[in-house]
Amino acid sequence: MPTNQNYSHNDTDSKNIISPEARASIADINPPTIKRSSAPSSAEMLREHVRVVLGCATNIIASIGIIFLNKYIFKNCRIRTMTLTAIQMAFTSIGLLICLQMNTFVRKTIALEKVLPLAAVFCAFVVFTNLSLEYNTIGTYQLFKILTTPVVVLISWQYYKTKYSRMVVATLVPVVVGVATHSVNDIQLTLLGTVIAAIGILSASLYQVWIGERLKELEMNSQQLLYYQAPLSAVLLIPFIVVMESFPSFETDEQQRTAITAVVASGIVAFVVNLSVYWVIKNTSALTYNMIGHMKTVSILVGGFILFQESLNFKQFLGIMMTLFGLFAYTLIRMREQNQLPCTRWNINPTPTSV
Q: Where does the chain cross the membrane (predicted)?
Protein backbone atom coordinates (compact mmCIF):
# COMPACT_ATOMS: atom_id res chain seq x y z
CA MET A 1 0.00 0.00 0.00
CA PRO A 2 1.26 3.36 -0.82
CA THR A 3 2.34 5.27 2.14
CA ASN A 4 3.29 8.73 1.68
CA GLN A 5 -0.01 10.52 0.49
CA ASN A 6 0.83 14.12 2.17
CA TYR A 7 1.05 17.07 -0.22
CA SER A 8 4.41 18.52 0.47
CA HIS A 9 7.49 19.29 -1.65
CA ASN A 10 10.83 19.74 0.05
CA ASP A 11 13.41 18.22 -2.35
CA THR A 12 15.12 20.58 -4.83
CA ASP A 13 18.14 20.06 -7.05
CA SER A 14 21.00 22.51 -6.69
CA LYS A 15 22.47 23.91 -9.92
CA ASN A 16 25.74 25.67 -10.58
CA ILE A 17 25.05 28.97 -12.35
CA ILE A 18 27.71 31.20 -13.88
CA SER A 19 26.73 34.85 -13.84
CA PRO A 20 26.61 36.83 -17.14
CA GLU A 21 29.44 39.05 -15.87
CA ALA A 22 31.64 36.00 -15.26
CA ARG A 23 30.89 34.68 -18.72
CA ALA A 24 31.79 38.06 -20.24
CA SER A 25 35.12 38.13 -18.37
CA ILE A 26 35.99 34.64 -19.54
CA ALA A 27 35.08 35.52 -23.12
CA ASP A 28 37.25 38.66 -23.03
CA ILE A 29 40.29 36.73 -21.79
CA ASN A 30 39.91 33.70 -24.04
CA PRO A 31 37.82 34.56 -27.12
CA PRO A 32 36.24 31.30 -28.25
CA THR A 33 36.91 30.08 -31.74
CA ILE A 34 33.82 27.88 -31.72
CA LYS A 35 30.55 29.09 -30.28
CA ARG A 36 29.10 26.66 -27.80
CA SER A 37 25.61 27.11 -26.42
CA SER A 38 25.05 26.25 -22.79
CA ALA A 39 21.31 25.92 -23.46
CA PRO A 40 20.09 22.35 -23.93
CA SER A 41 19.29 21.29 -27.47
CA SER A 42 15.75 20.64 -28.61
CA ALA A 43 16.47 16.89 -28.63
CA GLU A 44 17.72 17.00 -25.02
CA MET A 45 14.69 19.02 -23.93
CA LEU A 46 12.38 16.54 -25.66
CA ARG A 47 14.08 13.60 -23.94
CA GLU A 48 13.78 15.37 -20.57
CA HIS A 49 10.09 16.10 -21.12
CA VAL A 50 9.45 12.49 -22.16
CA ARG A 51 11.29 11.27 -19.03
CA VAL A 52 9.22 13.50 -16.73
CA VAL A 53 5.94 12.55 -18.42
CA LEU A 54 6.75 8.82 -18.18
CA GLY A 55 7.75 9.17 -14.51
CA CYS A 56 4.55 11.05 -13.62
CA ALA A 57 2.43 8.63 -15.65
CA THR A 58 4.01 5.68 -13.82
CA ASN A 59 3.12 7.22 -10.46
CA ILE A 60 -0.46 7.99 -11.54
CA ILE A 61 -1.12 4.54 -13.04
CA ALA A 62 0.50 2.70 -10.09
CA SER A 63 -1.33 4.78 -7.45
CA ILE A 64 -4.70 4.23 -9.11
CA GLY A 65 -3.95 0.60 -9.95
CA ILE A 66 -3.08 -0.36 -6.36
CA ILE A 67 -6.50 0.84 -5.15
CA PHE A 68 -8.41 -1.18 -7.75
CA LEU A 69 -6.14 -4.22 -7.29
CA ASN A 70 -6.70 -4.20 -3.53
CA LYS A 71 -10.45 -3.81 -3.97
CA TYR A 72 -10.49 -6.73 -6.43
CA ILE A 73 -8.48 -8.91 -4.02
CA PHE A 74 -10.80 -8.14 -1.10
CA LYS A 75 -13.88 -8.94 -3.18
CA ASN A 76 -12.70 -12.00 -5.10
CA CYS A 77 -9.57 -13.58 -3.62
CA ARG A 78 -10.51 -14.21 0.03
CA ILE A 79 -7.29 -12.65 1.27
CA ARG A 80 -7.66 -10.54 4.39
CA THR A 81 -6.37 -7.06 5.02
CA MET A 82 -3.41 -7.63 7.35
CA THR A 83 -2.11 -10.53 5.27
CA LEU A 84 -2.17 -8.43 2.13
CA THR A 85 -0.57 -5.48 3.93
CA ALA A 86 2.29 -7.64 5.25
CA ILE A 87 2.90 -9.09 1.77
CA GLN A 88 3.02 -5.63 0.23
CA MET A 89 5.47 -4.44 2.89
CA ALA A 90 7.64 -7.50 2.22
CA PHE A 91 7.72 -6.65 -1.50
CA THR A 92 8.60 -3.04 -0.65
CA SER A 93 11.44 -4.25 1.59
CA ILE A 94 12.84 -6.47 -1.18
CA GLY A 95 12.54 -3.63 -3.67
CA LEU A 96 14.42 -1.27 -1.36
CA LEU A 97 17.20 -3.84 -0.95
CA ILE A 98 17.55 -3.90 -4.74
CA CYS A 99 17.56 -0.08 -4.84
CA LEU A 100 20.26 -0.05 -2.16
CA GLN A 101 22.43 -2.35 -4.28
CA MET A 102 21.86 0.00 -7.24
CA ASN A 103 23.02 2.96 -5.10
CA THR A 104 19.76 4.92 -5.46
CA PHE A 105 20.06 5.84 -1.77
CA VAL A 106 22.58 5.43 1.04
CA ARG A 107 21.83 3.23 4.03
CA LYS A 108 22.02 5.00 7.38
CA THR A 109 22.48 2.91 10.51
CA ILE A 110 19.95 3.59 13.25
CA ALA A 111 18.64 1.83 16.36
CA LEU A 112 15.39 -0.04 15.66
CA GLU A 113 13.74 1.25 18.84
CA LYS A 114 13.82 4.74 17.34
CA VAL A 115 11.81 3.54 14.34
CA LEU A 116 9.49 1.17 16.24
CA PRO A 117 6.80 3.73 17.29
CA LEU A 118 6.60 5.10 13.77
CA ALA A 119 6.42 1.57 12.34
CA ALA A 120 3.52 0.77 14.69
CA VAL A 121 1.59 3.87 13.56
CA PHE A 122 2.47 3.00 9.95
CA CYS A 123 0.93 -0.47 10.47
CA ALA A 124 -2.26 1.04 11.87
CA PHE A 125 -2.40 3.59 9.06
CA VAL A 126 -2.02 1.04 6.24
CA VAL A 127 -4.16 -1.69 7.82
CA PHE A 128 -7.12 0.56 8.65
CA THR A 129 -6.86 2.30 5.27
CA ASN A 130 -7.08 -1.11 3.59
CA LEU A 131 -9.93 -2.11 5.92
CA SER A 132 -11.76 1.06 4.91
CA LEU A 133 -11.35 0.04 1.27
CA GLU A 134 -12.63 -3.45 2.12
CA TYR A 135 -15.75 -2.29 4.01
CA ASN A 136 -16.62 0.90 2.07
CA THR A 137 -17.21 1.82 -1.54
CA ILE A 138 -14.20 3.25 -3.39
CA GLY A 139 -15.83 6.69 -3.51
CA THR A 140 -16.46 6.81 0.24
CA TYR A 141 -13.00 5.35 0.94
CA GLN A 142 -11.30 8.04 -1.15
CA LEU A 143 -13.28 10.94 0.32
CA PHE A 144 -12.59 9.75 3.85
CA LYS A 145 -8.86 9.74 2.96
CA ILE A 146 -9.14 13.42 1.96
CA LEU A 147 -10.24 14.20 5.53
CA THR A 148 -6.64 13.48 6.51
CA THR A 149 -5.77 17.04 5.40
CA PRO A 150 -8.00 18.89 7.93
CA VAL A 151 -7.08 16.43 10.68
CA VAL A 152 -3.36 17.05 10.05
CA VAL A 153 -4.04 20.79 10.23
CA LEU A 154 -5.88 20.32 13.54
CA ILE A 155 -3.12 18.16 15.08
CA SER A 156 -0.37 20.51 13.91
CA TRP A 157 -2.23 23.54 15.29
CA GLN A 158 -3.17 21.95 18.62
CA TYR A 159 0.05 20.11 19.52
CA TYR A 160 2.79 21.73 17.44
CA LYS A 161 1.47 25.33 17.52
CA THR A 162 1.57 25.57 13.73
CA LYS A 163 -0.31 28.67 12.58
CA TYR A 164 -2.65 28.64 9.57
CA SER A 165 -4.28 31.60 7.89
CA ARG A 166 -8.04 32.11 7.91
CA MET A 167 -8.09 31.46 4.15
CA VAL A 168 -6.54 28.01 4.67
CA VAL A 169 -9.05 27.16 7.40
CA ALA A 170 -11.90 28.40 5.20
CA THR A 171 -10.92 26.01 2.37
CA LEU A 172 -11.26 23.06 4.75
CA VAL A 173 -14.95 23.79 5.40
CA PRO A 174 -16.18 22.55 1.98
CA VAL A 175 -13.89 19.53 2.33
CA VAL A 176 -15.52 18.44 5.59
CA VAL A 177 -19.07 19.34 4.48
CA GLY A 178 -18.56 17.61 1.13
CA VAL A 179 -17.36 14.36 2.70
CA ALA A 180 -20.26 14.43 5.17
CA THR A 181 -22.78 15.11 2.38
CA HIS A 182 -21.47 12.20 0.31
CA SER A 183 -21.23 9.79 3.24
CA VAL A 184 -24.71 10.28 4.73
CA ASN A 185 -26.19 9.65 1.27
CA ASP A 186 -24.17 6.49 0.65
CA ILE A 187 -26.67 3.66 1.09
CA GLN A 188 -23.82 1.12 1.45
CA LEU A 189 -22.12 2.96 4.32
CA THR A 190 -22.26 1.10 7.64
CA LEU A 191 -21.35 2.02 11.21
CA LEU A 192 -18.43 -0.43 11.12
CA GLY A 193 -17.15 1.07 7.86
CA THR A 194 -17.38 4.57 9.34
CA VAL A 195 -15.51 3.62 12.53
CA ILE A 196 -12.77 1.86 10.54
CA ALA A 197 -12.41 4.86 8.21
CA ALA A 198 -12.23 7.25 11.19
CA ILE A 199 -9.43 5.21 12.81
CA GLY A 200 -7.67 5.14 9.45
CA ILE A 201 -7.91 8.93 9.14
CA LEU A 202 -6.54 9.48 12.65
CA SER A 203 -3.64 7.05 12.24
CA ALA A 204 -2.79 8.42 8.77
CA SER A 205 -2.80 11.97 10.14
CA LEU A 206 -0.58 11.06 13.09
CA TYR A 207 1.79 9.26 10.73
CA GLN A 208 2.04 12.26 8.41
CA VAL A 209 2.77 14.62 11.29
CA TRP A 210 5.22 12.31 13.04
CA ILE A 211 7.15 11.30 9.92
CA GLY A 212 8.01 14.92 9.22
CA GLU A 213 9.32 15.34 12.75
CA ARG A 214 11.22 12.03 12.74
CA LEU A 215 12.89 12.70 9.38
CA LYS A 216 14.27 15.95 10.77
CA GLU A 217 15.26 14.39 14.09
CA LEU A 218 16.98 11.36 12.54
CA GLU A 219 18.38 13.35 9.60
CA MET A 220 17.12 10.76 7.11
CA ASN A 221 15.24 10.93 3.83
CA SER A 222 12.03 9.01 3.18
CA GLN A 223 13.69 6.06 1.45
CA GLN A 224 16.21 5.60 4.26
CA LEU A 225 13.42 5.56 6.83
CA LEU A 226 11.19 3.25 4.77
CA TYR A 227 14.14 0.84 4.46
CA TYR A 228 13.77 0.12 8.21
CA GLN A 229 10.07 0.83 8.55
CA ALA A 230 8.67 -1.56 5.92
CA PRO A 231 10.23 -4.84 7.14
CA LEU A 232 9.69 -3.91 10.79
CA SER A 233 6.01 -3.22 10.09
CA ALA A 234 5.63 -6.56 8.29
CA VAL A 235 7.11 -8.38 11.30
CA LEU A 236 4.81 -6.50 13.70
CA LEU A 237 1.78 -7.71 11.74
CA ILE A 238 2.67 -11.42 11.85
CA PRO A 239 1.28 -12.16 15.38
CA PHE A 240 -2.00 -10.40 14.53
CA ILE A 241 -2.29 -12.34 11.27
CA VAL A 242 -1.73 -15.67 13.07
CA VAL A 243 -4.38 -14.89 15.71
CA MET A 244 -7.00 -12.97 13.74
CA GLU A 245 -6.75 -14.19 10.14
CA SER A 246 -6.59 -17.55 8.39
CA PHE A 247 -4.92 -18.62 5.19
CA PRO A 248 -7.49 -18.63 2.35
CA SER A 249 -8.67 -21.86 0.76
CA PHE A 250 -9.66 -22.04 -2.89
CA GLU A 251 -12.10 -24.35 -4.63
CA THR A 252 -10.15 -24.62 -7.88
CA ASP A 253 -6.55 -24.26 -9.05
CA GLU A 254 -7.62 -21.44 -11.32
CA GLN A 255 -8.92 -19.41 -8.37
CA GLN A 256 -5.64 -20.01 -6.55
CA ARG A 257 -3.55 -18.93 -9.54
CA THR A 258 -5.69 -15.81 -9.97
CA ALA A 259 -5.30 -14.90 -6.29
CA ILE A 260 -1.53 -15.44 -6.32
CA THR A 261 -1.17 -13.38 -9.51
CA ALA A 262 -3.26 -10.54 -8.08
CA VAL A 263 -1.35 -10.49 -4.76
CA VAL A 264 2.07 -10.55 -6.44
CA ALA A 265 0.95 -7.79 -8.79
CA SER A 266 -0.28 -5.70 -5.85
CA GLY A 267 3.04 -6.15 -4.05
CA ILE A 268 5.02 -5.02 -7.09
CA VAL A 269 2.69 -2.08 -7.73
CA ALA A 270 2.86 -1.04 -4.06
CA PHE A 271 6.65 -0.82 -4.34
CA VAL A 272 6.39 1.12 -7.63
CA VAL A 273 4.04 3.61 -5.95
CA ASN A 274 6.54 4.28 -3.14
CA LEU A 275 9.49 4.56 -5.50
CA SER A 276 7.71 6.76 -8.04
CA VAL A 277 6.50 9.17 -5.33
CA TYR A 278 10.11 9.96 -4.40
CA TRP A 279 11.01 10.36 -8.10
CA VAL A 280 8.12 12.76 -8.78
CA ILE A 281 8.95 14.87 -5.70
CA LYS A 282 12.60 15.11 -6.76
CA ASN A 283 12.10 15.78 -10.48
CA THR A 284 9.01 18.02 -10.68
CA SER A 285 7.67 21.18 -9.11
CA ALA A 286 5.38 21.44 -6.10
CA LEU A 287 2.49 22.38 -8.41
CA THR A 288 3.01 19.29 -10.57
CA TYR A 289 3.15 17.02 -7.53
CA ASN A 290 -0.05 18.43 -6.07
CA MET A 291 -1.92 18.34 -9.37
CA ILE A 292 -0.90 14.71 -9.88
CA GLY A 293 -2.37 13.96 -6.45
CA HIS A 294 -5.66 15.63 -7.35
CA MET A 295 -5.75 13.87 -10.72
CA LYS A 296 -5.39 10.53 -8.93
CA THR A 297 -8.23 11.43 -6.56
CA VAL A 298 -10.61 12.27 -9.40
CA SER A 299 -9.55 9.17 -11.38
CA ILE A 300 -10.14 6.87 -8.39
CA LEU A 301 -13.60 8.36 -7.80
CA VAL A 302 -14.56 7.97 -11.47
CA GLY A 303 -12.97 4.51 -11.70
CA GLY A 304 -14.88 3.22 -8.69
CA PHE A 305 -18.15 4.36 -10.28
CA ILE A 306 -17.34 2.78 -13.67
CA LEU A 307 -15.43 -0.42 -12.80
CA PHE A 308 -17.32 -1.49 -9.68
CA GLN A 309 -20.75 -0.07 -10.63
CA GLU A 310 -20.97 1.88 -7.40
CA SER A 311 -24.16 3.90 -7.00
CA LEU A 312 -23.93 7.68 -7.20
CA ASN A 313 -26.94 9.90 -6.57
CA PHE A 314 -27.11 13.69 -6.99
CA LYS A 315 -26.34 14.47 -3.32
CA GLN A 316 -23.30 12.22 -3.40
CA PHE A 317 -22.12 13.92 -6.60
CA LEU A 318 -22.64 17.32 -4.95
CA GLY A 319 -20.58 16.16 -1.95
CA ILE A 320 -17.75 15.05 -4.25
CA MET A 321 -17.74 18.42 -6.06
CA MET A 322 -17.66 20.33 -2.76
CA THR A 323 -14.79 18.18 -1.48
CA LEU A 324 -12.75 18.60 -4.66
CA PHE A 325 -13.37 22.36 -4.67
CA GLY A 326 -12.11 22.65 -1.10
CA LEU A 327 -9.11 20.41 -1.88
CA PHE A 328 -8.04 22.45 -4.92
CA ALA A 329 -8.59 25.71 -3.03
CA TYR A 330 -6.52 24.46 -0.08
CA THR A 331 -3.65 23.51 -2.41
CA LEU A 332 -3.76 26.89 -4.17
CA ILE A 333 -3.79 28.92 -0.95
CA ARG A 334 -1.05 26.88 0.73
CA MET A 335 1.22 27.07 -2.32
CA ARG A 336 0.55 30.80 -2.60
CA GLU A 337 1.52 31.34 1.04
CA GLN A 338 4.69 29.26 0.56
CA ASN A 339 5.61 31.11 -2.67
CA GLN A 340 5.46 27.91 -4.72
CA LEU A 341 3.15 29.00 -7.54
CA PRO A 342 4.84 29.15 -10.97
CA CYS A 343 3.35 32.59 -11.67
CA THR A 344 5.35 34.64 -9.15
CA ARG A 345 2.95 37.59 -8.96
CA TRP A 346 0.29 35.26 -7.52
CA ASN A 347 2.47 34.42 -4.51
CA ILE A 348 2.24 36.23 -1.15
CA ASN A 349 5.89 37.35 -1.36
CA PRO A 350 6.78 37.25 -5.07
CA THR A 351 10.43 36.42 -5.75
CA PRO A 352 12.22 35.51 -8.97
CA THR A 353 13.14 32.10 -7.55
CA SER A 354 9.63 30.91 -6.73
CA VAL A 355 8.73 27.59 -8.31
A: 52-74, 86-103, 115-133, 139-160, 167-185, 191-213, 225-247, 259-281, 288-308, 314-333
